[in-house]
Amino acid sequence: MPKASQKCCSELQQQRLKFKPQLPEVLKGGPAAVKVKIGKPTKSVADQAAIKNIFPNTYGMPEVTFTKGKNPAVKKQVRVAVVLSGGQAPGGHNVIAGLLDGLKKANPKNKLYGFLGGPGGILECAFKEITPALMDQYRNTGGFDLIQSGRTKIETEEQLQKAKENILKEKINALVIVGGDDSNTNAGVIAEFFKKEGVDVAVIGVPKTIDGDLKNDQIETSFGFDTATKIYAELVGNICRDVNSARKYWHFVRLMGRSASHIALEVGLKTQPNIVLVGEEVLAKKMTLAQIVDDISKVIVARSEQGKNFGVVLVPEGLIEFIPEMKELISALNDVLAANEAELSKMSKIEEKKAFVIAKLPAKLASLMDSLPLGIASQLMLERDPHGNVQVSLIETEKLLVEMLSKKLAALKKEGKYNGKFSAIKHFFGYEGRCGVPSNFDANYTYALGYNAAVLALNKLSGYLSSVRNLTKSPKLWQCGGIPLTMMMNIEKRKGKEKPVIKKALVELNGEPFKCLAKNRAVWAMSESYVFPGPIQYFGPSEVTDMTSKTLQLEHKKSK
C-alpha cells in the first residue's frame, strides 16, 4: 500500500502526465521572443462614467496583442505568485504549469509561488513555492488541489492594505488571479489599489468558470466549460439511453450554471433530450412558474398520447432567478436579508424567518413568497455567498417542477385530458464536472492562458485579463494578448449596494447556439433523437479527441 504522503496515480493519469500541450505559434519562442502590440484605448461595456470614477488609474487602458519579435527586457529575474479563486474548473493546474514554464523560459531563476486556499492565502501570507518537480505531478490533471481554492473577497481597505503588506514583504513582482467574473472583478480592484498606492506589482487575471458566463469577443470561452459540459453530456446521454430502454420514467436533470444557461444549452445540443429549459428565454418571454409547468405538461401529455410515458428534461441551475416574478422576489429578499441579518440570525425556525421576511416585503411579493412550499422558501432565504449571490445550487428547482407537474397532470387526468403515467426521477449534476481530467481542448487552452499570463506579468501589464482566441482553429493558430479588466465591467446591485462587476455573458437568443436549439426542439420533444456522447476521449482521431464545444462551433459557424 502506498504511504499517505505519496501521490496516488491512476493508469489514465500516468498517461495524461505525459501529454504535451500545444502552444500558440506566437508563444513558442518564449516571452523574450514576444513583442507587445498596443491597441486603441478602451471603455467599459456600460456605466462608463461610474466605472472610470471607481478605477481612475486603470480605466481606458488599451487592448494588447502579442506578435513575434525581440523583447529582452522580460529576462529580468522576478518572483510571481498565483492564486486560484472561486469554484474549481478542469484545467486549473495547467494554467499554473503554463505560467511556470513561461517564467522559467524567460529566466530559469524566476520563482513561482502559490497562495494557499484562495485569496484568503494572500491575507494570511500562506504560500508554497511551485517548482518544476512539484508541477510535474499535476500537469493535465483536474482539480485545484495543488494549492486549493477559496472564495474570500479582498475588497475592504484593511484587506487591501494587508494584501499589499504581504506581497511586498515576500517581494512579489506580479500576482496572477485565476477566477470567474467576480474573482476577476476583485483582480481589477486590487490592480487599481496597487496603482493608486504606487505599488509596482502587476495583477493579471485568467478567465475560469465552468458556467461559461465569462465571455465576450476577446474571451471566446472560459476554461473548464468544455470539459465540464462533456462530463455532464456523458451522464445525460447515459440517462437518455436508459430512458429509451426502460420507457417508463421522466428524468429531470438540473445542471450547474448559476447565472446563465450556457451549460444546459451546450449539453442539450450535445445530447438532444426532449426538453431543454433556457433561463434567458424564460426572462425574455416574461414567463411565470405556472407557464413553464404548462409548457412542460403539454409535451408530457402529447408524448403519453403516443404511448411514451418517458422523457428527459434539462433544467439550468439558475432557472428560478430568470423567472421575472421570482427574480423580483430574490432581489427584494437580498435587500431584506442584508438589512435584517442580525435579527434573522437569532431565529431558529424556518417558519419564523419566513413570516418575518414576508412582513418586510411589498404586498405582491409577500403573496408570492407565502405561496411557495416551505422547502423552496427556506432555500431562497439561505445565506448568500461572499459575493452576495443567492446560492442557487441549493435551490432544488427540479423538485419544485416535478411537484407542480404532478399536481397539474393529476388535475388534467380528472378532466379527462391526460391518461398517461407520470413517474419522475430527479438529478443534479454539478460538482461531478468541476474537477474532471481536462479535455485535450481545455488542457491546451489552460496551458496557453497560463503561458500568456506569464508574458503579461513579465511586461508589467497590470489590470489585464489573459486572452487567447481563435479557438476553433488549431492551437498553433490561436491569437494571444490581454484585455483590460475594466473594459468588461458594469454596475450591478450586490447586497443592496451598487458595485462594479464584470458583466456576465448570458445566452444570446439571437445567437447561433440557441437558434439551433429552437430550430430542433419541436422534433426532439416528440421523438427519441437522443445522442450519446460517451466519455471524454484523450487518445485517437483528432476529430474526436480535440473537438471544441458545440457552442464554440456554432458561434464560429464551424459545426458540421
Description:
- The protein is α/β, with parallel strands linked by helices and 560 residues long.
- The chain has 22 helices and 16 strands.
- α7 (181-197) links the parallel β7 (174-179) and β8 (202-207).
- The N and C termini lie far apart (49 Å).
How are the secondary structure elements laid out?
Blueprint: H1 11-16, E1 34-41, H2 48-54, E2 62-68, E3 79-85, H3 92-106, E4 111-115, H4 120-124, E5 127-129, H5 132-135, E6 149-150, H6 157-169, E7 174-179, H7 181-197, E8 202-207, H8 225-246, E9 250-255, H9 262-271, E10 275-276, H10 279-284, H11 289-304, E11 311-316, H12 319-322, H13 324-339, H14 341-345, H15 350-360, H16 363-371, H17 374-380, H18 397-414, E12 424-429, H19 440-458, E13 464-469, E14 479-484, E15 489-494, E16 497-502, H20 512-526, H21 542-545, H22 550-555
Parallel strand pairs: 3-4, 3-6, 3-7, 7-8, 8-13, 9-11, 9-12, 10-11
Antiparallel strand pairs: 1-2, 2-14, 4-5, 13-14, 15-16
Helix pairs in contact: 3-19, 8-9, 9-20, 11-18, 13-16, 15-16
Task: Give the low-confidence spans.
Answer: 1-6
The residue-averaged pLDDT reads 94
Radius of gyration: 24 Å
The profile of the biggest β sheet is: 10 strands, mixed
What count of helical segments does DSSP give?
A: 22
Please report the total strand number as a whole number: 16
Proportion in β-strands: 15-25%
For the termini, the CA-CA separation is 49 Å
Share of residues in helices? 40-55%
Structural class: alpha/beta
Please state the overall shape, judged from the principal axes of the Cα atoms.
globular
